Queue: 4 jobs
Job 1
Amino acid sequence: MSEQRNLILAIVLSVAIILGFQYFYEIPRMQQAQQQASEGEAVTDVERPVPATVPGSTEVPSAAGPAIETMLLEKVLERSPRLPLDNGRLFGSMALESGRLDDILLADYRESIEPDAPNIRLLRPAGLPDSYFAEFGWVAAAEDVALPDASTLWRSDRQRLDRDDPVELVWDNGSGLTFKRRISVDADYMFTLTREVENNGTEPVTLYPYALVSRWGTPETLGYFILHEGPIGVLGDVLNEINYDDLVEAGKVSLESRGGWLGFTDKYWLVALVPDQESEISATFRYSAPGGKARYQADFVGRPVTVPPGGRVSVTDRIFVGAKEVNLLDKYSEELGIPLFDRAVDFGWFYFLTKPMFKILHYFYTLTGNYGVAILILTLLIRAVLYPLANKSYRAMSKMKQLQPEMMKIRERFGDDKARMNQELMALYKREKVNPMSGCLPIIVQIPIFFSLYKVLFVSIEMRHAPFFGWIRDLSAPDPTSIFNLFGLIPWDPPSFLQIGALPILMGVTMWLQQKLNPQPADPVQARVMMMLPIMFTFLFASFPAGLVLYWTWTNILSIAQQWLIMRQMGVSASPAKS
């Protein structure tokens, strides 16, 4: 097999892998098909980790349009007295009736790149089709103990929850037990909640602390094989990623752990319970469908504590509600001892490459203030690391180009005898000390680097809505322009398969130029395949994140410059050889 065939095989293999990840392994988007209960039907909105009777219920109305949903949200928020909260990065409120954390928006993130787009809302109160809230409480060993529940009205010592300024909620059960909650939030996304029980009665009381995150309805996910969205947790020092459909089938997944964390992850957002890292817990992921409405829940219950007469006990837990910012997750992991907290970001199988690549990219961003420029600098760094390998490869390819006239003569002489032709070619390579496979090595080495950068651009929120220059306003999204409407000059929106932007076209042109510097295939069929590759890659990369296309284009430009310089040093013509 000739060197060109090996090169084509390497390229086709890379294309096949890219297509496999992008299309063939793409799981179809989950479709919400929830049976709606009839008007007036009441359902229990959480399932306590330990069986208990739960007074109070919430009616979950059917889905509605955005305007109606907004009105419905406002009505639900008005049902209960609420405690406003704002730490600069989070804002919203928590319900004083039930004491749930159920109304949280992110100040730094919006639903689109438009400056007036709505802020991302993470938590929603019970009573909505997509309710999403956290609850902390107690379950008693005895059935006759009055405990705070969904209908409990807590008394607050403050009018507002601000950063590093705790609020204390108090409720007396009227039977000798006083329940207190001290809630604080830091400058980012971590809440700390200390629950205290004071026993003013005459008998000891045994209680189990629990915490849960309840999520109603099956969330719409991107459905990519390379991205996990759904129940997640590190329990027993093991990362557990559970798909929604798998949880529906299993009904319940129970795990024992010392410390750890668990909750729900979306592509960019995370809501995670973080128990005391020295506590033994029983953690559970659950699915149920009360009234035909899908309900997912992540919860844990701690070991029992006994409150003696005249005594008090307290437990402290945390909950993360926010964006999966890598450096922030690392900070929490280090300061609070939360194991593998950064794994909430799905860096995937190439974690050993993807995480360091993100760190380097983010460092260059801190220097330049632009992730696009950071990608260009990172590409230069990668090219510098691969320079010896690429240099050897380009010298071999230049030598191959010098030998192309002799290779053509061998082909003409032994064209009817393939075995003899390959034998003569191999003899030529050996005589001239040329390795035809060396030209494939840079491509093979770049495949894991390519996918690692793809993962960084795809999963890290730092790339979300990150602009470059000009028309590239979001490096995590495809180039928004299209040659088929003259890049916006014609008032027409082409279909997605015709969305071939300026940046992918530039990438295709640089790929074509690079081909012109390489030895031309002796086989006409191989030559035609090689000519088609820039066009194929242009259409393929048109749907990729603009940051990835920028990386590949800049890599091509640097490769062309390096290869041209080597060819000039070796006295090899840069023009294609005549066949």
Job 2
Amino acid sequence: MNTSRHQPPPDEPSVLDYVKSLFRGARLQIPGFAEEETSSTANDQPEHLQPLDSDLDSLLAADTAPLSTAVSPQPPEPKDEPPSPFPWSSLLALFLALVGQWLLEPPPDTQLGIALFVAALFALGWGLYRGEWTLAPLAETSDWTDPLTYRPVMLILSLGLGLWAFTLLDENLFTTLNVTVWALAVLAFIGALWIRTPGSQNWLAQIAGFFKRDTWTITISRWTILLLAVTALAFFFRFTQTETVPAEPFSDHAEKLYDVYDVSQGDTHIFFPRNTGREAIQMYWTLWVANIFGTGLSYLSLKLGTAILGFLTLPFIYLLGKEIGGTRVALFAFMLAGIAYWPNVISRIGLRFPLYPLFVAPTLLFLLRGLRTRNRNDFLLSGLFLGLGLHGYSPFRIVPFVVIAAFVLYWIHSQSKGARRELPVWLAMLAITSLLVFLPLLRFWIDNPEIFGFRAFSRLSTVEQPLPGPAPVIFASNVGKALMMYNLDDGEIWVNSIPHRPALDVVTGALFLFGFVLVLIRYIRKRHWQDLFLLVSIPLLQLPSTLSLAFPGENPALNRAGAASIPAFLLAALALDGLATSLKGRGMRNVVAWGLTGILLAASASQNYTLVFDTFANSFRLGSWNTSDMGRVIREFEQTYGTTETVWVVPFPYWVDTRLPAAWAGIPNRDMALWPENFASTVELPGPKLFILKADTEDPTVNDQQSVDALKELYPNGVLRLFDSDIPGHDFWIFFVPG
């Protein structure tokens, strides 16, 4: 069996012993992801695969438990050993890093902050020398060999259905027929290659067995209660004040509402060409959310939909943490990601941003688990999520290259010994699965290559404007800025971040840096491919941001680098778990260990709450226009006079998107713009009229006085009043014409 760990002497308890002893008797078992208590052996071969017509159960098999998770057997109870030295060096390193990260908060004292970080790393190094701060051990790699069997009838059927679906997916429209054929092609391909795990039942049999039980027993452990509490906390952070944070939409939301409206009217596009082009998932998801929650085609539906998507990412982060470090690392990663300002903000905006991390997390989960267990089912699932992610948010297009990088790193490391023959086959399985799921967009891409790639190439090349310098120089600068976003500066895009502050809070930022260093040192010592991939995945997943060569001011961008938050939280969780392990001992040391861990997590939650619901919320209100106020004025006019056909918003440079007041008034498909040269066309219309115009009582240069004067000339009996906003500079004129 391949392993990257050095086994401790038989009489010396390992770190793994301590970690497992913390939660002995308090484990949460998740179906399909439970750790095995024994390692796989050569006898754990699956039954020979049969053609579809003789084994329909194999298609329905949903138990994705690996053939062998290759986790070490339960270690013996640790013997009474003299307690390890108290980790003063590690605590000093933590203190220095926290102070250093705090000094990098706005306004930053960069020099002193970096100096303290350097001192913290020296203290950490001394602690490592003394054996204080140790990471959770890596899981062993299975030595199982893939039988390379398949179901030929189903495979041929899947390829035929795929070709048929490709011919049907024309005209950029989903139909009942082409969606059915496309889905059957994907399912048939997965069914042709899916293998049954030894002793597993298909999911139908499991459900039937569950309901046949005479008695049901529900066991609630301390770990279950803790996990539920953390889930409730993450739920609170994702969904509290959804209606008001952020407060106002901007032009991208108007485009989205138009697209969702198109879907509601039967225009079921595969790719939405409006606004430089958008993938389809959010449009259909928002319409579903609007119908389920009764929120209509509104800004709230957009925000609620993306908040749900952001929340659905967290279970996969938990499972990733469990894969790389065990259940405690999983819990820490789950909580840090659940309360963090970065994923919380990009999940609340109401745009496609959370779709990037949502599909990256399961893609990486099944990829890492597949390479560890050598179970092809995981590669099929990874390919499924890879293909789905390509329908979500355009930065996800970098993920196929991340997957290839993982295979290459695995192949060149010793952990791949005995599996190098199967690696190309597994990669092909994953790639074809994702290609079949991607098929509708592939057809659109072939038919409309310029439209499909315009958004990406507008940032990467000179499509919209010349590069402001040599491409290699810009890219190198972008990479450096993106790598500093975690601890120093997250960029200047105010609509999805708090400009020029660290992307991570003080606690998570310090732990992230320690996690990065600890994993790097472990890789240098043990040469395990997973450690290197965890580190390399950060700049790879940031490429959608760092490749903004034509607009370097848009880098770093929390939305385009959103999936890079996943390895960041995993590294921070590994560091926190290592700290807790170093403190673990007897008596007061346990109190110190859990007390300090609780204080760090509480401090992180407190700061992140302030960042999202105070700093970001207020910054966004100041930067966005108060179209909701205009929407209320329009609704009052409609309630009084029974129409909105004689209500207009007069456009002004760098002011409101004239479609958004209509959206607030419940009209998602109308642009209320009326340009001054068309004022005269309103004279012949009967009934009362309402005009909304730009106003600024302090600066005449941003006041649409010319339009006001033109309306007064046309309507001498009109009444002009100022809507006094509670936000400075957000007032507007209301010009009312009686009927």
Job 3
Amino acid sequence: MQGLMMGTQLLISTLIEHAGRHAGETEIVSRRVEGDIHRTNWREVQQRSKQLANALLAMGVKPGDRVATIAWNGYRHLELYYAVSGIGAILHTINPRLHPDQVAWIANHAEDRHVFFDATFLPIAQAVAARCPTVKSWVQMTARDRMPAAQSATPTALEPLCYEELLAAAAPQLVWPSFDENTASSLCYTSGTTGNPKGVLYSHRSSVLHAFGAAMPDAMGVSASDCVLPVVPMFHVNAWGLPYTMALVGCKVVFPGAALDGKSLYELFENEKVTFSAGVPTVWLGLINYMKQNGYTFSSFRKTIIGGSACPPAMIRTLNDDFGVEVIHAWGMSEMSPLGTTCKLANRHLTLSKDLQLRILEKQGHVIYGVDMKIVDPDGKDLPWDGVAFGDLLVRGPWVVRAYFKSEGGDPLVIDADGISWFPTGDVGTIDPDGYLQITDRSKDVIKSGGEWIGSIDLENIAMAHPEVAMAAVIAIPHPKWDERPLLVVVRKADSTVSREDLLAHYEGKIAKWWTPDDVVFVEAIPLGATGKMLKAKLRDTFRGHKLPTA
């Protein structure tokens, strides 16, 4: 016997309809690439999304067509999120920080039909347009007076359409079509796999369920009373699902555009009374440094979710103790939409000392409903949740990938002894008796020394706690006796004279002695990838011939 409930489909269009109808006057503020501050609201975005949907239909966009964006966080990008998916097409967000060759490869692999781009990225569009034969039109996301001058009529000339003209010519009336909630809604390519980037194809169902999960109190905990500024880009795993979660709760939204420096962010935080944000550790490092240099504090900002890479405990303590900001340490990946765990205290933790609470909050945290996880040894055997044993992390759930776009890389899932399918994350970690995950490394970054594993993240966190260290990375260096040994790569803070000996001494008493790095090298900068993560592969190439001291 089946239940007698309505069969309403979980579609992304229902989110913008909800926000427009029930939070219509709530502001959406954007710092535009044009340089000004633009103000709109959920009702206007709902209406313009419908006009844009009609414009897309007039351009010949059909269900399943890929429509790409190369854009910053802003209201026009948000309109595309809803217009494209709302008519059954697939929103494909492209990371503009990639090399043009990678952008062209991804656009061709996705077989994009149309590309919408911010004026900032006109050079990228010009560089790749001739190499993207499936793309029928390029649309610059601006008004007519900001469009580029006409180019000479050469085969490679790019003459983009004007976004605002497309909307102005489109009818405002639209009833969003209804279709199967398992229909593909958006496409993101991940560089966290081996070989070429692989496409992760999300569905309407998975995205709406993820939005519900992310909004829960023990996840992001976003509500209608919040003013949310997503620092994480909308081209990075759909801004961690925030464009959907923000519509679901109907909160005020502030988009930072291209200005992600400490000064620009701080001005928006204060002027718009931001209460909640989300981003990777490197962004917060810049904001913290700017505020400390100027003696600033926050007047409204009270909570942030930090993920993308492990957040150094020193950063968690600084934001908490010096600026009164609660840090929600999170873990996930593109293949998980991306949220997997968030770190919030449980009731049983409230009587612990502040130091013990902070030790818990430094972990990546507990799964949110919809995700399950376990750790296994190299033979696939389940490992205990004792906070000590660490192994390969496996996950499953309704917003976890089951295959990559066009079946790239074959079947990624593994099947356990009970016949249950799991996705291998490529991360290594521990799970404590309370079910809290702590990532100790990526499987490709773990250091194997004398048959034992050393987690590079723990060593990096200790180095980052030193007051004269701006950034630190730990990589494996070949060793004739121990197979591999850790090398600490450090960026000093301005005017610092911290030495190799000072940093090695900093580890004493904090870890097992044999975990201590064998050497320290100082660099001007640590290479970062397109999503702000440290590129350890590049560091390993750079220091492949480094000779470790012989004790």
Job 4
Amino acid sequence: MESSTIIRKMMAGNEIMVPTYQRAYSWETPIETSDRKTQTDVFLSDLEEYSRSNAKTPYYFGHFLFEEKNQKFKVIDGQQRLTTIIIFLSALFTKLKTIRALSEKEQFCYEDMIKRGSEFRFLTVDYDEQLFIDYVINQAKSDHNGLETESSRRIVRAFDFFKKQLSEKPEDYLIKMLSIISEATCTTHPVQNESEAIQMFIFQNDRGKRPSNLEIVKAQFMYHVHLYGNNDKDALVKEIKNRFEKIYKSISSIEYRINEDDVLLYTLRVYFNSLWETNSLSRINKRLVEDNPIDFIMSFTNALSKSFEYLSQFFGADERTNFKIHSLIALGGIAVALPFIIKAYRYDLALDEIGNLCSSLESLVLRHRLIGTRADITSRINDVFEKFTESTKDISPIIDRINLLKTTTDWWWAYWNNDKLKESLQGGINHSVAKYILWKYENHLRAQGKAGYILRYDHIMLPELEHIAPTTEPELKPHGYDMYDDDFRNQFLNCLGNYLLLSKSHNASIHNDSFPIKHQDYKWLEQQREVQSLVPDPSKDIWSRDIIKSRKDKIINVIMSNC
């Protein structure tokens, strides 16, 4: 490869692939319900802006760093851009072929950049490779079934997005885009020495767009092994690569649930047995300059791999089968709980025990989110975290400590007690927490009545918080709500008694209607039917402040009894 070249020459005749110890495809694609900019639409808009500019200089795609071995090139830096280029070009060639057959020049371009015979110019990580070939390159697959990783779903979304964007484009547009990309300039740096490649990755990314802390740690570990691994270097590097292959496979299945750098931090807290660990890179860098960093590197990499494995199980199969785990995850904001969870899996606790631990931690997290005190929770629970060890495997001190926090009146411990909780439930509540509370209340009503089965939170289609009496008074009167005076607006509109859990589509259909109209449509959840029972005849009775207060008190009593 030439150090300064064009994209087509860089790819022609070469085999470029993403090694399995590197991150899989991570660029996001816009969705119809959001106007948020993502990497793929910025990629396209930048190309189109360049096309309109009539610039005299070629488009520039940046720098690519490769490890070269046996005429094969492993992408160390730049694979997200390169993956997107191939996805876009494949969609472009597909559209062009629907207009006419490729010219000889275009066919050569396709063979140089996409595929010649059975030779692929670029392939992604091996666990997404077949999907990449089938969906993007050969297009033998068109359905979305069997997408096992989040990275594979991103590949599919990006290809579908580009196909849709190109579907109405004229031939001239396609030809110009093909020319812009194939003739775009780039710089490359292939190295034979893996240590040099890793060192360059660290150097470049400390000065450019910063990668994740996890990626930096991986590169640092591999570099230190190259420096200090001596005769065991090759075996140690291979082990690290294998560990990170597992880590990235785990990330692709849970990254929509949790941030990878957070998992790194939680692992650090478990590894050093302290919830006070707050800066992953600083702590790891400090340890790497101490004597014999190799032992630390290998043991921590193993612990990190295990943490991702445990959390994949926790957010995956166990969340689907254990309702207590599902309930904690549904609450969200559970960073304080996850180091405890990692330990529980590490010590091979039974799933029922993990579920009980989740329930106890859930009550603490809920209180912490509702009460909103500035008091530090870490100082109140770090000691029981430290004593939760493999030799004891005992969760009872953790549960006892949380129960103490819930009941004590001692000032230093009492920020999360029942009095504080009850006080926090009186007025307006953060909407995400309010939805969670109403879901818990829904399951309480189901347990009392004939509905029977427990409702999972994710079985409610896009749950939203409905104000039964709308925050803005309906213009048409009579509307069936109490008088909209200052007392009603300040004390009753924004409280649990006036909140209702609805699906997004249901909420949109009844947004600001009068109470009699809403009343007849409240029939899907038990809490909606309860509202109907509280006002049996809305033609005669209104949704009053007395009813709102009574319902609020009932919901609070349920939460106090269960949390």
